[in-house]
Write a structure and sequence with these properties.
Elements: H1 2-13, H2 17-25, H3 29-36, H4 40-46, E1 50-51, E2 54-55, H5 58-69, H6 73-86, H7 88-91, H8 100-108, H9 114-123, H10 130-141, H11 147-251, H12 259-324, E3 331-341, E4 347-353, E5 358-362, H13 363-367, E6 376-381, E7 387-392, E8 399-408, E9 411-416, E10 419-422, E11 435-441, E12 450-456, E13 469-470, H14 472-479, E14 483-484, H15 486-495, E15 501-502, E16 508-509, H16 514-518, H17 521-524, E17 529-530, H18 534-541, E18 545-548, E19 576-580, H19 588-593, E20 599-603, E21 621-625, H20 631-644, E22 648-651, H21 656-667
Parallel strand pairs: 17-18, 19-20, 19-21, 21-22
Antiparallel strand pairs: 1-2, 3-4, 3-6, 4-5, 6-7, 8-9, 8-11, 9-10, 11-12, 13-16, 14-18, 15-16
Helix pairs in contact: 2-5, 9-10, 11-12
C-alpha cells in the first residue's frame, strides 16, 4: 500500500528539475562523486569541479549533473531515491498527523535542516499540510511572500546575462582563432625553414658521399702501395740475410783467392748492405706515414657516417612535424589531472587542457614518459584526433632529488643537502624515514612548489618470516625502547585504530606481520628519553614507551644532559664497512667503531667517487647516511652498488649510537 501511495508522487518529482536541484545540493559530496566517476561521459563533463575526490563547486556540479540527467532517467531516480533512503527521519513526517506539537518539532529541526524542510514541502502530497509548511518556511526565510518574485527576477537576470556571456565568449573564441592561425603560420614557416635546411643537408650528403668515394679510392691505393712496399721490404731483407751469410763465408781464409780480392769484395758488400738498410728504413717510414693517413681517412669516414645519422634523424623529425601539421588542433597544452583504472585492468589518465577541455589518455602513453601528476605538458594528436604522444613543458625546471622523507605534524618533507622540500602527494607510510628519490616541480599558476612523486631508492628489506604476534620483548626491540607500559600501549593502539587482540600468554596478535602493522606508529608517537634522576624515571614509567638517554642527549622531562655512557660493547667479526656521508661526525666513525672490531673507512658526503682511485674493493657493507649527503653523490653510489652488486644499507641516523645500532641489526 505504501508503494502505491508514493509511486505517483515519485513519478511526478523525478521530472521536476527544480526539486532535483534542491535534492542534489542537499546530497553528500561523496555520493555525488560516486555517481560521477563510474560514468565516463558524465565524468568528462564534471571533472573540472572535482579534484582528488573533493568537490570544488557543489552548486555548479549539481547543475551540470542535472543538465546531463535530462537525458538519463536512471540518474534522476538515483538522485531522488538516494535522498529518500538516507533521510529516513525526515521521511517520517508525512506519516504523522498534523498537530501543533508536530509543527513545533518540525520548526525546531527534529526532522532536518531548513533545506530538508523545503524539499519535504514539495515532496509531501497532503494538501492539508500546506499551511503548516508555509508557516514553518516563513520562519526560516523571513520573507516568504517575495520568494516567487525573487525567483522570477533571478531567472530574468540570468537570461539577460547569458546573452552577454555568449557575446563575450564569441569574442574570446574569435581572438583564440586568430592566435591559433598565427601559431599555424609560424609552424608552417618553421617547416619551410626545416625543408630548406634538409635540402642543404642533402647537398652536403652528396658532397660527403663524393668525398667518401675519393677517400675509399685513396685508401685502396694506399693499401696497395703499403702491400707493395712490404713485399719489397721482405725481398730486401731476405737478400740482406743472404749477403750477410756470404760476407761471413768470405771472411774465412781462402787459399784459392788472393787476400786483396777478398777485401775489395767485403767493402763492396758493406756498401750494398748500408744501402739496403737505408732502403728498408725509408720503406718503414713510408709504411708508418701511409698507416697514419689510413687512420685519418677512417676517422673522417666515421665522422661522415655520424653526419649521415644526424641527417636521417632530421628527416624523421621533419616527417613527424609534417604529419602533426595536418590539423590546427594537433596539440593541446595542459596537465595530467588524475588517473582511473578501467574494468579490464588498464589505467587511463585524465588530461585537462588550459582551455578546460578534458581528454582521456591511455596509460601506455604516460608510461613512455617521466611525467608526474600536475606537470604541464603538450598532448599531440594524430590526423584522426586520437592522442599520439606527450611532451613535458617543464623538463628544464623539474629536478630529481634524493633524500629522506620526514613527518612534521600532518605534513611530510623530503630532506636533502640540509634543505627541506614539501611533499604535495600522498605516499605510503613505509616510505617515511627511508631513502627515496623525489621529483620536484616549481610553483606554477595554482600549483605550489614541492615534491610530486616519491619512489623508494632501494627496496626495503623485510624478513621473509611473517610473524603476526609479538610479545613485550619483541615490541621493545622494534621501537628500541627500554620501558613499555603495556596498558598505555594498548590505549595507544586503540587511539590509532590498529586492530589487535591480547592472547592468553600476554602477547599481541595482529592481522599481518607485527612489524608492518606497528611501523606507522613511529609517525604519530613521540618516545621520550629519561635520565638517571628517580623522579624522571617515575614519570617515564607512566608513558607508553620510553628509552634512557645516553651521553650527549637531553632528558625530555628535566632537560638536563645525560652523562651516562654505554657500558655494553658489542664486538663484531672484523667486517670491512665503507661509510659515506654524516660529515657532522666525520672521521669519528673510524675512531669509535674501530673499538667494536670493525674496519671502517669513512668518506665525505659532499665529494665525488673520484677519491676512490683504487676502487671500493669488495667491502662487507656500503653504508650511506642519507641525512647528510649530496644527492649527486647519492646517485653515484646507487649506480656503483648496482654495477658491482655490493651490499648496501641506507641509514636515516647519523649519530654513532644510531649507526652502531643499524650495523648491529644488519650483521645480526
Amino acid at each position: 500500500m505504501a508503494e502505491d501511495f508514493w509511486a505517483p508522487v515519485f513519478a511526478r518529482l523525478v521530472e521536476d528539475y527544480e526539486f532535483l536541484d534542491m535534492v542534489a545540493n542537499d546530497t553528500a559530496e561523496n555520493d555525488l562523486v560516486s555517481w560521477v566517476k563510474p560514468n565516463r561521459a558524465l565524468f568528462a563533463r564534471c571533472a573540472r569541479f572535482i579534484k582528488k575526490n573533493r568537490v570544488l563547486d557543489k552548486p555548479a556540479l549539481a547543475r551540470e549533473m542535472l543538465a546531463y540527467a535530462r537525458n538519463d532517467a536512471a540518474l534522476r531516480k538515483i538522485i531522488l531515491f538516494t535522498w529518500v533512503e538516507k533521510n529516513a527521519v525526515t521521511m517520517e513526517f508525512p506519516t504523522l498527523a498534523v498537530t501543533e506539537e508536530i509543527e513545533s518539532q518540525l520548526q525546531s529541526g527534529r526532522f532536518g535542516s531548513p533545506a530538508k524542510v523545503r524539499i519535504l514541502a514539495k515532496l509531501d502530497p497532503r494538501d492539508g499540510a500546506r499551511p503548516l509548511y508555509e508557516r514553518v518556511l516563513a520562519t526560516f526565510s523571513g520573507a516568504p511572500a517575495l520568494a516567487d518574485r525573487g525567483a522570477q527576477y533571478f531567472v530574468d537576470t540570468l537570461a539577460g546575462n547569458s546573452a552577454a556571456d555568449r557575446d563575450e565568449a564569441s569574442t574570446k573564441l574569435a581572438q583564440r582563432v586568430v592566435e591559433l592561425e598565427k601559431l599555424l603560420e609560424e609552424f608552417k614557416t618553421d617547416s619551410r625553414q626545416l625543408k630548406k635546411q634538409l635540402e642543404a643537408r642533402q647537398e652536403e650528403i652528396k658532397a660527403q658521399n663524393r668525398r667518401i668515394e675519393d677517400y675509399s679510392r685513396q685508401l685502396k691505393d694506399a693499401d696497395a702501395a703499403v702491400q707493395t712496399l712490404k713485399n719489397e721490404s721482405a725481398g730486401l731483407l731476405s737478400r740482406l740475410k743472404f749477403l750477410e751469410q756470404q760476407s761471413v763465408q768470405a771472411q774465412s781464409p781462402s787459399e784459392k783467392a788472393p787476400r786483396v780480392d777478398v777485401s775489395e769484395q767485403l767493402a763492396a758488400m758493406s756498401e750494398e748492405i748500408a744501402a739496403l738498410r737505408r732502403a728498408v728504413d725509408n720503406r718503414e717510414t713510408t709504411i708508418r706515414r701511409l698507416e697514419g693517413e689510413k687512420s685519418a681517412l677512417i676517422g673522417q669516414q666515421n665522422a661522415d657516417s655520424e653526419k649521415d645519422r644526424q641527417v636521417a634523424a632530421l628527416r624523421q623529425r621533419l616527417a613527424e612535424l609534417e604529419s602533426s601539421a595536418t590539423a590546427a588542433t594537433s596539440r593541446l597544452a595542459g596537465h595530467l589531472l588524475s588517473s582511473r583504472r578501467e574494468p579490464d585492468g588498464r589505467r587511463n589518465w585524465l588530461f585537462l587542457s588550459i582551455s578546460g577541455r578534458v581528454v582521456f589518455v591511455d596509460g601506455s602513453l604516460v608510461n613512455r614518459t617521466t611525467l608526474v601528476s600536475d606537470e604541464f605538458c603538450l598532448l599531440y594528436f594524430d590526423s584522426a584526433g586520437r592522442p599520439l604522444a606527450l611532451e613535458s613543458l617543464e623538463s628544464d625546471a623539474r629536478r630529481e632529488i634524493c633524500g629522506c622523507v620526514e613527518a612534521s605534524g600532518d605534513e611530510l618533507f623530503l630532506l636533502a643537502d640540509s634543505q627541506s622540500f614539501r611533499v604535495q602527494v600522498e605516499i605510503a607510510a613505509s616510505l617515511v624515514e627511508t631513502p627515496v628519490r623525489g621529483i620536484w616541480l616549481p610553483e606554477f599558476a595554482e600549483r605550489p612548489a614541492g615534491i610530486y612523486r616519491v619512489e623508494a631508492l632501494a627496496p626495503h628489506s623485510l624478513s621473509a618470516n611473517v610473524q603476526k604476534s609479538a610479545d613485550s620483548k619483541q615490541i621493545k626491540t622494534l621501537f628500541r625502547v627500554s620501558h613499555l607500559n603495556f596498558d598505555r600501549f594498548l590505549e595507544l593502539l586503540e587511539q590509532q585504530a590498529i586492530g589487535h587482540s591480547v592472547r592468553a600468554d600476554g602477547s599481541l596478535a595482529f592481522s599481518a606481520d607485527y612489524r608492518e602493522v606497528l611501523e606507522p606508529l613511529r609517525m604519530h608517537v613521540r618516545i621520550p628519553r629519561f635520565c638517571d634522576n628517580p623522579e624522571c624515571q617515575t614519570r617515564a614509567m607512566a608513558e607508553a614507551m620510553a628509552r634512557p638517554s645516553i651521553q650527549g642527549q637531553r632528558c625530555d622531562f628535566c632537560g638536563s644532559n645525560s652523562t651516562v655512557t654505554v657500558t655494553e660493547k658489542k664486538q663484531f667479526a672484523g667486517q670491512r664497512v665503507l661509510i659515506f656521508g654524516g660529515d657532522y661526525v666525520g672521521s669519528e666513525y673510524e675512531r669509535v667503531l674501530s673499538g667494536y672490531n670493525l674496519n671502517v673507512e669513512w668518506h665525505s658526503g659532499f665529494k665525488t667517487l673520484a677519491a676512490l682511485k683504487s676502487g671500493s674493493g669488495r667491502p662487507d657493507l656500503v653504508m650511506v647516511i642519507v641525512r647528510q649527503i649530496s644527492h649527486t653523490l647519492l646517485r653515484e653510489l646507487v649506480t656503483m652498488v648496482a654495477r658491482d652488486s655490493l651490499p648496501v644499507l641506507y641509514s636515516s641516523r647519523r649519530g654513532i649510537s644510531g649507526v652502531l645500532a643499524d650495523l648491529g641489526e644488519y650483521f645480526g
